Amino acid sequence: MVLGIETSCDETGVALIRASTDPGLPPGLGGQAEILAQALHSQVSLHAAYGGVVPELASRNHIQRLAPLSEQVIQEAGLSWGELDAVAYTEGPGLAGALLVGASLGQGLAHAIGRPAIGIHHLEGHLLSPLLDPAASGLRFPFLALLVSGGHTQIMRVDSLGQYQMLGETVDDAAGEAFDKSAQLLGLGYPGGPEIARWSARGNSKRFELPRPLLKRSTLDFSFAGLKTAVLTHVQKLKAADGLDDHARADMAAAVQEAIVDVLTTKCRKALQETGLRQMVVAGGVGANQRLRAQFNAIQKSDQVEVLFAPPHLCTDNGIMIAWAAALHLLAGKPAVMSPGFTVRPRWPLSAFTPKTS
Ligand code: KG4
Ligand code: ZN
Fold first, then answer.
1. d(CA 271, CA 259)
2. Residue 31: which of 119, 105, 107, 137 has the closest Cα?
3. Which of 212, 208, 254, 215 is nearest to 232 (CA)?
4. Which candidate, 184, 264, 169, 268, places its Cα nearest to that of 221?
5. Is 39 helix (H, G, I), strand (E, B) or coil?
6. Could you check whether 2-128+315-357 and 139-309 share the same CATH topology?
7. CA dihedral 137, 84, 342, 163 (to 10 degrees)
8. Which of 1, 123, 178, 260 has its CA 20 to 30 A from that of 196?
């Protein structure tokens, strides 16, 4: 029974899960989680006026929300604090101040009830969340993972629970950032991903040509900064000609979505071919994108591979994925040692990851 706390960015997420795994399978596979209670407070409206997350506002809001949400989750589950087996929180990467709020409460709670506090890597939380879907019961190591969020775009090879090898990553902006910045240039709402997706539905993706950097290169790395510059150039031209109307916005949104989806799917196909792996998971906020899912579904059929996603509401940040990652490590028999002091890691590559329990 694990409480998960997520405060790395602009969502305050808390969840309480009861997890179990199939002892016949390697640790991390064939797991199940019963979600006993969950709460999620989005700070979107707080940051919307700025077009992006303001770190200081994020930390202050987490401070206000986190303790009441934790109390609420325990009450909804009808449990007392002492019934928890562990308290997990996001240790990094993320905004330092925001991470400290979750780490402080997580460590404090764990200390108070005499149970382990587990610092979780945020990206590992994303990466393991597709395993919450019963459809993932056939997943076996090694497999590939595409992590696409507001801060990261990476293709990883997953050899076992806790062993992640980076095969490619963005050299500049993350895919989610490309969605967010393009939306901002078009005067659409924040966060940009869902807005671009919404506007794309009535747009023509072929009207504007946008670059797909590194697409034809042999590398599995990504680059999205040129996309933002190209959108800016189109927007400036349209504005000069008094042509940035809703029609143009929808067409540009569709072109942006198509360019990002095209790059992500092409690189993943290449990674599957190069590694010879036949199973992959897609995780992180951008994984909620319907066009991306549709293109991956087409690849499943054409290339005879299996592509698994987290349920759409678990693609973006939440407490469930943090509780789940911690539960998988606990069920895998990680030693739980109480130690004084704790840290947060605003920058923390997943490939340098060493699971730690304190
Ligand atoms: O994983 P996440 O919630 O937070 C980070 O760890 O960064 O991802 C947030 C990102 C934002 O950039 C947001 O615009 C993007 O995910 N996003 C989407 C969609 N929903 C969220 N991008 C494209 N299509 C969506 N439906
Ligand atoms: Zn995230």
1. 18
2. 137
3. 208
4. 169
5. strand
6. yes
7. -10
8. 123
Task: Find the 174 Cα to ligand 2 centroid distance in Å.
Answer: 12
Say how many Å lie between the CA of residue 339 and the centre of ligand 2: 27
- Domain borders along the chain are 2-128+315-357, 139-309
Among 8, 170, 179, 290, say which to mutate for ligand 1: greatest number of ligand atoms within 8 Å of CB. Answer: 179
| pLDDT tens per residue across span 44-88 | 999 988 878 999 999 999 999 999 999 999 999 999 999 999 999
Looking at ligand 1, which atom is closest to the CA of residue 316? Answer: 3
Report how far ligand 2's centroid is from the alpha carbon of 122 (Å): 6
Superfamily of domain 139-309: ATPase, nucleotide binding domain (3.30.420.40)
200 lines ligand 1 (CB under 6 A): no
Q: 80 C-alpha to center of ligand 1: Å?
A: 34
Atom 16 in ligand 1: residue holding the nearest Cα: 285
Determine if the pTM surpasses 0.90. yes
Task: Give whole-number Cα distances, 31 to 26, 63, 211, 233, 357, in Å.
Answer: 10, 32, 41, 48, 20
State the pLDDT at residue 337: 47
- Distance from C-alpha of 271 to C-alpha of 167, rounded to nearest angstrom: 8
Peptide bond into 93 cis (omega under 30): yes
